[in-house]
Design brief:
globular, alpha/beta, six-stranded mixed sheet, 8 helices, two-stranded antiparallel sheet, Lysozyme-like, 2 domains
Length: 245
């Protein structure tokens, strides 16, 4: 028997046995992971894998001993792997926080991107990510503001997706928030941590919260302090979020 035919049949049989049925209309390769629990999604959390290739990531994300998983993995070539049912609780966020929510695993869909963290994200990968986000947003009614990075919800411990990730492009397409200058000045009485907390960040480690914001929203070096321009942008983002953006 042709090895490729055998492997394809084995994967389909594994999918059938696991009950993992694709929900998206986009083409995916089903690769079931046993690491999940029940829940309903209201966020999407984007990660990068740090691996050199998608096969290594698939092994990690489906290893019962590692107890880590995501709902989707997108390869550099734009291939989508479907690992955990969207209605199930994958284990990708860990101990996390955003806007009062301390269990993002229970309310989010995790998307891993095949990327080491030290390289630009491949165009086929980002193009397919935008398609997948549009699909998820439409079906689950996920708010635009609830498209976040792993580093946003775990400041200081995680930095993915890296500073190479095109957040501004995603926001222009309706996934995540962004504000362009000019910005209104922020009253001096409102300190940096208040602004960060109002937007959603965990601020118990101030420098980590500032760094997480700068990595996502600014090309400036991480300095441990917000510049006046960054404060203005943050104030604008808060208003957009409060308005339901």
């Amino acid at each position: 028997m042709n090895p490729r035919v055998f492997m394809a049949g084995a994967v389909l049989l594994l999918a059938a046995c696991s009950g993992l049925q694709p929900r998206t209309s986009l083409p995916v390769e089903v690769w079931p992971s046993p690491n999940y629990g029940e829940r309903r999604p209201n966020f999407v959390i984007i990660h990068h894998t740090t691996d050199d290739n998608a096969n290594d990531s698939l092994k990690t994300l489906s290893d019962p001993i590692r107890e880590v998983s995501s709902h989707y993995l997108i390869g550099r070539d734009g291939r989508i792997y479907y690992l955990v049912d969207e209605g199930k609780r994958a284990w990708h966020a860990g101990e996390s926080y955003w806007g009062g929510n301390r269990d993002l695993n229970s309310s989010s869909i995790g998307i891993e991107l095949d990327n080491t963290g030290d390289e630009p994200f491949a165009e086929p990968q980002i193009a397919v990510l935008l398609e997948l986000l549009a699909d998820l947003k439409a079906r689950w009614k996920i708010p635009q503001a609830n498209i976040l990075g792993h580093g946003d919800i775990v400041p200081g411990r995680k930095v993915d997706p890296s500073a190479h990730f095109p957040w501004q492009r995603l926001a222009a397409a309706g996934f995540g928030l962004w504000c362009d200058p000019p910005y209104e000045p922020v009253p001096e009485a409102i300190d940096d941590l208040t602004l960060l907390a109002l937007f959603g960040y965990e601020v118990t480690v101030p420098r980590a919260a500032v760094a997480a914001f700068q990595r996502h929203f600014s090309t400036e070096d991480e300095t441990g302090m917000l510049s006046p321009e960054q404060r203005g942008m943050l104030q604008c983002l808060i208003r957009k979020r409060q308005a339901g953006g």
